[in-house]
Amino acid sequence: MIRTVNITKIYRGNVVALRDVSIDIIKSEFVFLVGPSGSGKSTMMRLILREDQPTSGEIYVAGKNVAQLASWKVPALRRNIGCVFQDFKLLPNKTVFENVAFALEVIGVSRGVIRRQVPEVLELVGLGDKAPHLPDELSGGEQQRVSIARAFVNRPQILIADEPTGNLDPTTSIEIMKLLDLINRRGTTVLMATHDHAIVDAMRRRVIELDKGIVVRDQERGVYGYGAQV
Amino acid sequence: MAIKIDYALQESATNIRRNMFITVAAILVVGVSLFLGGSALLLQHATARASDQWTSQVEVAVFLTNDISPDERTQLQNDLTAMSEVARVTYESKAQAYERFKRLFANQPDIVNNTSPDALPESFRVKLKDPHQFGVIRDRLDGRPGVYQIRDERQTVHELFKATETQRKMSFWNAIIVFIAATILIATTIRMAIFSRRKEIGIMKLVGATNWFVRIPFMLEGVVQGLIGGVVAVCILLLPPVRSLLSSTGPQLAFSQSFRFQVTYGDIVLYGSFMIAAGMLIGVLGSLFGLRRFLDV
Ligand SMILES: Nc1ncnc2c1ncn2[C@@H]1O[C@H](COP(=O)(O)OP(=O)(O)O)[C@@H](O)[C@H]1O
Ligand SMILES: [Mg+2]
Fold this sequence. Notes:
Order of helices and strands of chain B: HHEHEHHEHEHHHHHH
Bound molecules: adenosine-5'-diphosphate, magnesium ion
Oligomer: heterodimer
Number of strands of chain A: 11
Largest sheet of chain A: 6 strands, mixed
Strand content of chain B: 5-15%
Largest interface: A-B, 21 and 21 residues
Strand order of the largest sheet of chain A: 7-8-9-4-10-11
Strand order of the largest sheet of chain B: 2-3-1-4
Number of helices of chain B: 12
């Protein structure tokens, strides 16, 4: 579902964010991308979303070579990838319903479908009763659930989450993880960047660890640190 | 590409409301710019038309001496009419000449009062089949008793228009500069609108909105601004004092009251639609410039 072949990303000023990274994530997998701050996790996400292009190497998402993709085909790619961020990226002047509906509106989905799908997905994330509220009337965890609803509302094949629990307390984080797990069990491939040890250790899923842009570990049913391995 | 018209319209309306102040400023500047540029071109058009019209209408004037006898006069008229180059001959008496003179200088009574009804010569107004034949007529009539002076009035028209030619050329370049300035201004308002909504745009692009879907509301906004600017320009142009002011800046022919330089409503309709079209073009160009680089995925 997501496959990279020797990708290297060098930013201006000779900052090497990723070096020779080759990973292969198959359909319906749940994968943690771990590593200290600055190790290249977000860069990886940005390359998958084609927000940026690798300096060299190839990236295949759902069979398409993203690095070579014509720019007019990028929107179609992104419709297949839901994304969730640490800072939620909700529109403050739109209600919960409108925030989720927005993701459908801008890809030209009809009103009828929006009226059906949005309440459904809000129900799924447990916010059925919050539809008319504005984001700042919600807790951080609830806001993140809105953003997950938005990422998932058009049933993408892939969900990318860049430190989705980074701003949340441990209890709320667990709620979010349960939700991502639920989404994964419905068949969506999930790639989540994090440096939250507790979560990674608790979930026991595949772990890919980056350090200074290099893959130093790729382990089925892993935990966060090397310490746990020995 | 699934772009919903009502969505696009609603978005541009929201944008315009949010940036009301700068939007109104842009519309006014575009309006005034289009008015200045457009009216310069309008004047040029009216002048060119007047030049054609006047040149084709003015005649050769054969002024008669005071002591011409009625026989000589009749003979001269018959000879003129008989000439193959001549299309038409009309006679203008001293009294008619004075009437015309009075009308011409109606707002300068001093000049009229100081001129006796007798002072203006009688004349034949000769219309030639081919205006270039003036030389032939002059050679034939020169020195003939009773003929005081032969004048090609077309020449006078030409000189008059030559005097305003550089002015008109300048006004064309003025219009170009004004057009560019207005475009830059619209681009600026679009930039601001984009800036104030960059978060929304970022999300739109992340969830897979096409570039055109993001662009079109902004372009529509630019076009609407340009369109309203054009309408403002036409409204200014339609103000009666503005129209007469414009008419008064054109070349004026002192010797003929039938050639009043006029900016007609026809001209205004023609150039008004041109200004509105130019306003929309400015809107499209401005928003394209404003959007440039900003929305590359
Ligand atoms: N747009 C950018 N321009 C230049 N350097 C960048 C840019 N984005 C990230 N970097 C650098 O690339 C490296 C990896 O960053 P990032 O992918 O954000 O890591 P992480 O998400 O793991 O913290 C860091 O050294 C960071 O400073
Ligand atoms: Mg990061």
